[in-house]
Amino acid sequence: MPGPGNSLRAAALLAFVVLSILVSLLISSVQQFGARLSHFSNATVAGDEEAASLRRALNYQLNERRKEILPLLLPADDDDEDDDDDEHGQSGGARHASRLDSTLDSNLWNEITHGSEKTHMDEMGCDSLVDMQAVEVLGSGYTKLVVKVNLAKGQPVALKLVNEQGIDMGKCLEDFKDPEGCRELVSYKLKKEIVLLQRLQHPNVIKLKGHCAADAGGHGTKGGEGGRIAVILEQGNPLQMIQLLQSPWEDRFRVCLDLVRLLHFLSQSPLGSVALLDFQPRQFVTVSGELKLTDLDDASAEETTCRTDADCTLQFPHRNFTLPCTAQGVCGGLNEKMNIYNAYRYFFTYLLPHQAPPGLTHLVDHIMNSTGELKADINQTLDAFEHILLLYKSGLHLDNLPPSIIRDYTMMRGMGTSGNVEYRCWPSYSQQGCVLSVHSPREAAYICNSHPQCNSFTLNGQKTWTGRLLASFRSSFSHLVPDGTSEVYVKKTKAPETSAV
Ligand SMILES: Nc1ncnc2c1ncn2[C@@H]1O[C@H](COP(=O)(O)OP(=O)(O)OP(=O)(O)O)[C@@H](O)[C@H]1O
Ligand SMILES: *[C@@H]1O[C@H](CO)[C@@H](O)[C@H](O)[C@H]1NC(C)=O
Ligand SMILES: *[C@@H]1O[C@H](CO)[C@@H](O)[C@H](O)[C@H]1NC(C)=O
Ligand SMILES: *[C@@H]1O[C@H](CO)[C@@H](O)[C@H](O)[C@H]1NC(C)=O
Ligand SMILES: *[C@@H]1O[C@H](CO)[C@@H](O)[C@H](O)[C@H]1NC(C)=O
């Protein structure tokens, strides 16, 4: 159990982390921030009345944020519009409000605002932050700052904090001129995220390791609220679209498949059908190549109520869709469809078609069309992706490769090469030479035949995430060297006019 001393120490450390990072990285914003404050201090002299009215407006905002979180704390009871209508016909918000005081998970709420105890799924508390080391900033956005941290035992984690220099904080200060109150207001987004991370656990959602709500300075602010909040997360790498665009199709397909698995889960989550309102690549990170959603504060399980189909339009910059208004008076599948179209426009169009394996292009084209036109629901979309994965793993899409092609090569087992003359190909797994994934030696032979520079290739037993083999292609080598697990294939003839078949 963490003692109060440890919590205070963690609070001081948190404050220090925030300060040292901001001072070094954001000096210019700090100066603007200062200018705004001095302007403000002049304004308050003008009248206490104005200050009081600002405080009232801020309190209203704080209350609104709180109300947004409370429904999420209700015991697992889904909002699912189709199969859960027996006990409540009202739409989400109103129904929840009436049950808030009696049934909300007050333990969780206390836990988040006071932060001393731990729940079973959320192991780490303030005590685990004692003696942590901040390594670097992983990212920042409108609301949050994410810092790469090593905990005392050397364990790497990501720490999410309020971004004191973010747009959210800046806007709030401009409106309300109250740094403490604004920190509390912005903290609600972190609190909401903690609740959502606990409720929406999935392999493609970032893992919540714990959180710390430390009272800055150790004063008992009312109810422990307004203290600093830090969310302790599994560490990932921010998704780099530019880098992904240059990666092999297999890796790009993986990101899209992971995204579809996530959306399938979100469409029937414990909270109901969840829409990601701010759907951008920057809301995701990868952990060992696996895609994970990290920004959940804009997730919503609200259903849109309607009277006619016209109330159910989904508007995007280049496309509008109209969905059916169901007999229950909600737009059927609106959240699910919104997610699918966003996946199409932010991910699939960039990552999926380009360089898809020839045997799979018709299936990829079909996915592009059915998601781009919202003709398929998430179940059908997931089925289509899993089907592609199955074909790709099993090599069934390669059926039309001539089996005899491998006879053009002499195979030497237990051998590697040295003195290689490499050539580059694209998109290669290695910067130095040409390394591609293949299903079998036969596919590697087919690829080698199609590269004019290629005269031999090696399979060394390394595999990609799908289990395909990594093959290194090269122009020539000077000698063979013993290498236990590796196989070298050398072209029997170099004459280009010799038939490959
Ligand atoms: N667990 C993590 N590991 C590594 N990087 C992360 C992690 N979580 C978030 N990041 C990075 O930090 C950035 C900011 O986090 P987040 O998106 O939660 O903040 P935000 O203020 O809500 O951002 P936005 O303005 O985009 O909504 C992310 O874009 C991501 O690149
Ligand atoms: C503060 O107010 C005074 C008089 O109301 C004004 O002359 C002065 O310019 C103001 N200062 C700032 C920084 O706004
Ligand atoms: C989508 O609908 C909006 C509002 O009705 C309209 O202004 C816009 O032109 C439509 N866009 C497209 C691409 O049809
Ligand atoms: C889907 O296919 C139809 C028919 O070929 C075509 O008109 C439409 O533009 C395609 N839509 C997308 C999003 O690719
Ligand atoms: C989608 O699949 C889930 C199971 O994975 C099932 O419960 C649900 O009813 C399916 N939805 C539709 C519209 O087929």
From TrEMBL:
Q: Name one GO molecular function term.
A: ATP binding
Region described as Disordered: spans on this chain: 75-98
A GO cellular component annotation here is: Golgi apparatus
Cellular localization per UniProt = Golgi apparatus; Secreted
Record keyword Hydrolase present:
no
Q: Taking every annotated instance into account, which residue ranges of this chain make up the domain Protein kinase?
A: 132-501
Q: Which reaction does it catalyse?
A: L-tyrosyl-[protein] + ATP = O-phospho-L-tyrosyl-[protein] + ADP + H(+)
InterPro entries in the cross-refs: Kinase-like_dom_sf, PKDCC, Prot_kinase_dom
Which residues lie in Acidic residues bias regions? 76-87
Per the record, the GO terms for biological process are: cell differentiation; ossification; protein transport; skeletal system development
What are the entry keywords?
ATP-binding, Developmental protein, Differentiation, Glycoprotein, Golgi apparatus, Kinase, Nucleotide-binding, Osteogenesis, Phosphoprotein, Protein transport, Secreted, Signal, Transferase, Transport, Tyrosine-protein kinase
So what EC number does this one have? 2.7.10.2
UniProt cross-references to Gene3D superfamilies, sorted A to Z: Transferase(Phosphotransferase) domain 1
Q: What is this protein called?
A: Extracellular tyrosine-protein kinase PKDCC
Natural source organism: Anabas testudineus (Climbing perch)
